[in-house]
Design brief:
By secondary structure, this protein is an alpha/beta fold. It has three domains: about 300 residues, TIM Barrel; about 200 residues, Rossmann fold; about 140 residues, Sandwich (Immunoglobulin-like). It is built from 23 helices and 29 strands. The longest helix has 20 residues. The radius of gyration is 27 Å and the shape is globular. The chain starts with a helix and ends in an 8-residue tail after the last helix. Bound molecules: 2-acetamido-2-deoxy-beta-D-glucopyranose (12 copies). The site of one 2-acetamido-2-deoxy-beta-D-glucopyranose has 5 residues, from loops. Pathway: Glycan degradation; xylan degradation. It comes from Salinomyces thailandicus. InterPro entries: BXL (IPR044993), Fn3-like (IPR026891), GH (IPR017853), Glyco_hydro_3_C (IPR002772), Glyco_hydro_3_C_sf (IPR036881), Glyco_hydro_3_N (IPR001764), Glyco_hydro_3_N_sf (IPR036962), Ig-like_fold (IPR013783).
Length: about 800
Amino acid sequence: MSALLGAAVLALAGPALAQLEGRGFPECHQGPLKNNTVCDTSADPLDRAIALIKTFTLEEKLNNTGSTSPGVPRLGLPAYTWWNEALHGVADSPGVNFSDVGDFSYATSFPEPIVMGAAFDDELIRAVATVVSTEARAFNNFDRAGLDFWTPNINPYKDPRWGRGLETPGEDPFHIASYVHNLIDGLQGGYDPKYKRVVATCKHFVGYDMESWNGNYRYQWDAQISSQDLVEYYMPPFQSCARDSNVGAFMCSYNAVNGRPTCADPYLLNDILREHWGWTEEQQWVTSDCDAVQNVFYPHKFTETREEAVAAALNAGTDIDCGTYYQHHLPAAYEQGLFNESTLDQALVRQYSSLVRLGYFDGMAVPYRNLTFSDVSTPHAQQLAHRAAAEGIVLLKNDGTLPLKIGSDMTIALVGDWANATTQMQGNYEGPAPYLHGPVYGANQTGATVLVANQPGGQGDPTTDNWRPIWEYAEQADVIVYAGGIDLTVAEEGMDRVSIDWTGAQLDVIGQLAMYGKPMFVMQMGDQVDNTPIIQNPNISALIWGGYPGQDGGLALFDIVTGKVAPAGRLPVTQYPAAYISQIPMTDMTLRPNATTGSPGRTYQWYTGEPVFEFGSGLHYTNFSISFANDLPHNHHSSSSCYNISDLTGDCNEQYKDRCAFATIPLDVHNTGAVTSDYVALGFLTGCHGPQPYPRKRLRAYKRLHGIAPGSTQTAAVNLTLGSLARVDDYGNTVLYPGDYALMIDTQPLAMMNFSLTGEAVTLDYWPQPPVKRVQENGYWVGGYGSTQEEGLLADGTVPGVM
Ligand SMILES: *[C@@H]1O[C@H](CO)[C@@H](O)[C@H](O)[C@H]1NC(C)=O
Ligand SMILES: *[C@@H]1O[C@H](CO)[C@@H](O)[C@H](O)[C@H]1NC(C)=O
Ligand SMILES: *[C@@H]1O[C@H](CO)[C@@H](O)[C@H](O)[C@H]1NC(C)=O
Ligand SMILES: *[C@@H]1O[C@H](CO)[C@@H](O)[C@H](O)[C@H]1NC(C)=O
Ligand SMILES: *[C@@H]1O[C@H](CO)[C@@H](O)[C@H](O)[C@H]1NC(C)=O
Ligand SMILES: *[C@@H]1O[C@H](CO)[C@@H](O)[C@H](O)[C@H]1NC(C)=O
Ligand SMILES: *[C@@H]1O[C@H](CO)[C@@H](O)[C@H](O)[C@H]1NC(C)=O
Ligand SMILES: *[C@@H]1O[C@H](CO)[C@@H](O)[C@H](O)[C@H]1NC(C)=O
Ligand SMILES: *[C@@H]1O[C@H](CO)[C@@H](O)[C@H](O)[C@H]1NC(C)=O
Ligand SMILES: *[C@@H]1O[C@H](CO)[C@@H](O)[C@H](O)[C@H]1NC(C)=O
Ligand SMILES: *[C@@H]1O[C@H](CO)[C@@H](O)[C@H](O)[C@H]1NC(C)=O
Ligand SMILES: *[C@@H]1O[C@H](CO)[C@@H](O)[C@H](O)[C@H]1NC(C)=O
């Protein structure tokens, strides 16, 4: 039925939600579905989905395999759009329909995940995700969104050039795994609720973190990844989704891994995702990234025919094709006997079981069905968007000028391309926001006179003639604020960065502004750039990283400046020197430094150079001291902090041994300064244990404490599991090794505790071994410089072949 007609009826009928029956929702109260088990709310969800699919003809089945499902009109099963986005708030996408004005014309627009990651606050993430799923449900009730959302993006952000790094919580796999567990909990409404709030989709599985670099494109890229790197770095966020968070959906990626496009790889989609991680509920489905099934044919050229491509994806376990390739080519593939109807049925049962679990067939019995636009952008949601920005903003330099009292007697010169930012603050995958409070708004709230010069424009317009207002305002000002950096014009989906430095024009202007000898702050917006010149310039009082801070970002920034909020965010990525990008190709998927290739290593765990700011950096307006509340527990397992591995593992009764507790270590955090402040306790493990080389350190626990008053103490519990002590061997097995361990709190350790494990190493998780390692050899594509595809072809004498 026409959505337009439905909307008109609604407008006339007011809030009578029952009007929605039969339009956005299946006709369970009349027609052929009425007596079908799918509409029996007391039946088993799997039986309900099976009963529905039994009534489909083959053609109807084949028709409902794409991201836009026509449904089955003769049954009263409406069309459904699977492709909905909600990265940091309900967002524009094929399934989401914002109205032009009035109700449903906006949704809360939180900061990009890179900023929310910097908050290191799992409870905040859960609260944000709960708001997002609440607003999504309100949209769905009025036929303005679906019930599943293709979020989160959790590929670890290992290369600063990646155009989609802003969509992720950062570079550390443990951090992302913890973040995403809480996010999914908030989006779906718990581990196994009767009715899911929405279905979340963990993407992009797996090894996807390059858009376009030196002639390499995400659509054809064959990432060569060792089992060790895969398990240690690329997989933990996805394991958290599938095994530990019961996420409803996964998305396979554009790239290939070790010779096979991920959407056509039964090793990844079946052996790892479904079997090894136990992600086998009937309601759990995999969608392809958009047109990734087409990409299996070209440019991967993984199969000889289009029919083989769609069959390879379906048989591997890709249940939904984002696009139309399944709908167009599965019919001929079926004729050719390339897949069984039972496989198609399984894909459809997964899709519709998921909708059953969302209450799609259950009408007003679903508790979320009474949500309306009055549940969108509530005062709570607005306050949370501000809090998320304020918690994520990171103070990187401060000569003591901040916090600064700014009164109505003062004049602020606000300079730079981000000075009057609006939609810039939202980054990508955004929807219309209720308001966009940029730096101008934030500065104005201080009561000061604000002079705004939006130069140099863009990424640093070098037309010096346009810079004249800057000097005029700087002359008049008491305080100078430069707000710039990068934005989506240089780093976006489809576009990786070609520089990680500030642009020349911006650095020139910043340098000249510093010479006025006035209090001057730099607000570094967007992703990381090399801040060396700003650190080194003694005339620049402070540097604040604001990222993409969302609808209230400008206010949050100035609340930090004035001290209304004390900064406590931490960089969730390494800030590298600008030259880093000439030391390692984007296509090098290894993490460890390598003398042969010249790689200096990736991420804080392995990078051998001197970072500009290391992962976890972030200053405060106060100081903290830390002490361990007790020694490690001494019991029959331990004497003088020495633990016997066979005793530790012998006591472990969990199905997944990495989950067994090692110790909960209480940590006293004492505020020794004069300002009330949050504090993020970061717990890193280091030491000589497991395979060499050893990482510099690994984040294994974190906790944000709130509002620690001067002179007072709060306690954080650092929970270590056997998994958090373990390391990964060459085969991808997770192993608990004997050796020396040290737990360090914070980046410049404020406290440290040593212990050791003795006895024989014990494997906690045996990794399913991959089929023989392959490289993609298709003769169609020759990757550019740095492409291991090209190197693979030259180096590997074996014939990888097509299958
Ligand atoms: C549903 O079942 C009832 C009782 O078995 C029957 O009277 C009715 O006609 C059926 N309705 C439909 C739409 O098949
Ligand atoms: C399949 O989809 C096509 C295009 O949407 C439509 O024309 C056709 O009627 C559908 N067939 C069935 C059986 O639903
Ligand atoms: C989106 O909503 C508008 C009403 O605001 C309606 O006219 C339009 O048909 C809808 N579009 C879709 C694709 O549902
Ligand atoms: C179809 O199912 C049969 C019986 O289980 C099996 O032998 C055959 O390999 C399957 N065909 C395909 C293409 O999967
Ligand atoms: C919506 O429904 C739920 C459960 O059915 C109920 O707890 C809640 O009070 C209702 N809210 C409103 C605004 O009616
Ligand atoms: C800021 O931008 C808004 C709209 O984007 C515009 O209306 C306003 O004049 C700008 N303010 C300044 C001070 O440039
Ligand atoms: C600044 O605030 C004043 C008073 O609060 C208001 O009149 C003015 O429009 C604001 N200016 C901007 C650029 O927001
Ligand atoms: C710092 O400011 C003073 C003037 O206050 C100026 O003489 C000096 O050159 C500046 N230094 C830098 C590095 O900009
Ligand atoms: C370093 O890189 C070379 C070339 O890719 C590779 O053969 C070698 O195994 C790597 N060394 C280590 C220690 O990973
Ligand atoms: C923190 O302590 C250091 C060294 O004792 C001191 O120099 C600094 O001023 C303190 N910072 C704050 C914000 O209190
Ligand atoms: C740590 O473990 C304790 C006890 O099991 C639990 O109450 C607490 O929530 C855990 N903390 C974190 C941050 O996981
Ligand atoms: C560890 O404990 C086991 C049995 O509990 C014992 O056999 C073994 O000798 C112990 N190993 C060490 C190194 O203490």
